[in-house]
Amino acid sequence: MDKFTIIANSVKDRNFVVSHRIAEYLRNNGKECLMLQDTGEEQNASYHYTDPDRIPDDTQCIIVLGGDGTLLQAARDVVDKDIPLFGINMGTLGYLAEIDQHSIYPALDRLMSDRYTIERRMMLSGTVYKNDKVAVSDVALNDIVIGREGPLRVVRFNNYVNGTFLNSYKADGIIVSTPTGSTGYSLSAGGPIISPAASMILMTPLAPHTLNTRSIVFSPDDRITVEIGEGRDQNQEHGMASFDGDTSVSMVTGDRIVITRSKKDTRIIKINNISFLETLREKMSNS
């Protein structure tokens, strides 16, 4: 690899000290490196975290400093670029950002000498419909959560698969996740852990008001629809759809979100031989 772009996190990397060191190291080794320092979203911007238009099309690797959260946000912004991401964790061990601050230079050496592998991670595409008209469309690498909004009471969620009614949950919310997202919010809600190499869609109810409710695993080709149902006495309920814990869209009774596998994948660069199971074991032993 010869051409790099750095996406920094101003909170995790104060004054961009580490980012500057990485850029200097790459340039001293004859590589091109652009560093994006403005990590906040501008008013009325179409992106969430990083302006993809500022990333050159011939970039071969996007280095993301921060952690899994930063990488998730970056992945959504640059998905149309189809450029592999390499995460450097500025905190604790992550599932996506595998390199810590103490291993940066050996990791950069491996990138420059093309000693790495690339993992493809499926993403979700979600479209919110209001009165049968498209309101918002977005993508998620981890999950799309449809939850209640407002007073602390359960909401009825009507679920459909490929246009056929599946069931109704009375719950705090519904988590629809990728295998990558199975170790996130879905796991805390009792969902199963799925290898990130798999291709499937996972639906997990959030605090359901029934004793026999379980997560359901669907084919990656299935189309999941979640509709906000009526409240008590046929009152209007209020909900919200959230993409990777970032972008949120308000919903009311009758509104629905249609979730499918995205046509785009996120490509994650791996340079270690540490397997997903090893990372999982270490995370679990430290929890």
From TrEMBL:
GO terms for biological process: NAD+ metabolic process; NADP+ biosynthetic process. GO terms for molecular function: ATP binding; metal ion binding; NAD binding; NAD+ kinase activity. GO terms for cellular component: cytoplasm. NAD(+) binds at residues 68-69, 142-143, 153, 170, 172, 183-188, 207. It is found in: Cytoplasm. It comes from the Bacteria. It catalyses: NAD(+) + ATP = ADP + NADP(+) + H(+). Signal peptide: none annotated. Gene3D superfamilies: Probable inorganic polyphosphate/atp-NAD kinase, domain 1, Probable inorganic polyphosphate/atp-NAD kinase, domain 2. The active site is at residue 68. Its EC number is 2.7.1.23. Keywords: ATP-binding, Cytoplasm, Kinase, NAD, NADP, Nucleotide-binding, Transferase. Its cofactor is a divalent metal cation. Belongs to the NAD kinase family. Involved in the regulation of the intracellular balance of NAD and NADP, and is a key enzyme in the biosynthesis of NADP. Catalyzes specifically the phosphorylation on 2'-hydroxyl of the adenosine moiety of NAD to yield NADP. This is NAD kinase. The gene is nadK.
